[in-house]
Amino acid sequence: MSISLARSVTLVVPGDLDLPTGGYVYDRRILSMLPDYGVQPELIALPGSFPFPTAADLEHTAKLLAAAPPDAPLLFDGLALGAMPSAMIKSLPQRIIALVHHPLYLESGLDEAHATALKASETEALALARHVIVTSPATKRILVAEFAVNATKITVAEPGTDPAARASGTGTPLQLLAVGAISPRKGYDILVEALRPLADLDWRLTIAGATDRNPAAVSSLETAIAEAGFHDRIRLSGTVVPATLAKFYDTCDLFVMPSLFEGYGMVLAEAMARGLPIVCTTGGAASETVPNAAALKVAPGHSIFLSAALEKALRDKRLRARMADASWEMGRTLPPWTETTRRIAAVVMGLAP
Fold this sequence. Notes:
Blueprint: E1 7-14, H1 22-33, E2 39-46, H2 55-66, E3 74-77, H3 78-81, H4 86-90, E4 96-100, H5 112-128, E5 131-134, H6 137-147, E6 154-156, E7 174-179, H7 188-195, E8 203-208, H8 215-228, E9 234-236, H9 242-250, E10 254-257, H10 266-273, E11 278-281, H11 286-289, E12 295-298, H12 303-315, H13 317-331, H14 337-351
Parallel strand pairs: 1-2, 1-3, 3-4, 4-5, 5-6, 7-8, 7-10, 8-9, 10-11, 11-12
Helix pairs in contact: 7-8, 7-12, 10-13
């Protein structure tokens, strides 16, 4: 259904929108679908250095924003807005909508000084936003409790999920799959540590995700794999095309997400859309994205707990089958991208002149 009265919005995103991250997938989908809901979007691509922009990048950012249509709201990806100086935000004539995938200061690997600075910067930025869009109720609660954002100006627009065929699995050896760019927040080093006591079980693990975003994390993970003697059992596939990722999902027997924090956990939704049993952490919104019947959940950052959950799932075929059924049922109820876009379009319509 289209809204007859068209409005405009300028989506502001740092870096390359084609990058294969959950946040950029979200941004791409709403950018392509907003016209169906009466909103004409334009894109401004900021320097990719955010959330740690250089002085030169901030200067270039100011020039790009100065050229934006003054009568169209600016829909800022939080990766950029939360790291911008408040004076720059205040100088903008447009209404500001913040799109927060997850708070910047909760990114793993930050030292205390950077985390503190990012939280302060994001607090100021969110106070200046006319409205805030978040991708989960959990993130909404964080913004209210830790950033003093008024709940009435927050809209939850969960990521959509595309329908998919139910996975067929492999069985022997059991195929484990983790999806997401390699970074400290994803906890892949903890996953390797958790698998070390399970070397006697017949499993293989594929980690499908970009290997060029955080070279230090990749190097650390490769070292952990080598020290565990898992070079022939754990594969880092890097970024893969959609058809290959779909094959990984189809042949998977157990989906694993060891992340320390997730603003929603789009890969969990993708796993449920295929009816996969899941072992995951409770970091951020992940514990709410997946129902208890579909997953074994453990606290993030603890390899011992993760190892116990993995062993239980790997040894118990009936348990995996029960979780798979619950996952498949939940996957049938996940919101589509049309609902995500409809919610965002409604916010834009409410702020556009």
